[in-house]
Write a sequence for this structure.
């Protein structure tokens, strides 16, 4: 059985690609937990959380840029 011809102006969809798994979202979540937990305990923990959020953001964006 042949594939049906698409309607005028339509085209066959491209196959979807799934991105590679990465740990950066989990690192970002941990950094946010430290950042918010540090606001009620000590600012040292907030600083560590902010550092983790920045590191995770840079790593995640870097991984997405190299994926193309």
């Amino acid at each position: 059985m042949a594939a049906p011809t698409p309607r005028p102006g339509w085209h066959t969809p491209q196959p979807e690609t799934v991105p590679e798994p990465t740990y950066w979202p989990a690192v970002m979540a941990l950094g946010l937990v430290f950042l918010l937990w540090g606001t009620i305990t000590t600012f040292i923990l907030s600083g560590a959380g902010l550092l983790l959020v920045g590191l995770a953001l840079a790593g995640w964006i870097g991984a997405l840029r190299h994926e193309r």
Observations:
- The mean pLDDT is 89.
- The longest helix spans residues 43-67.
- The radius of gyration is 21 Å.
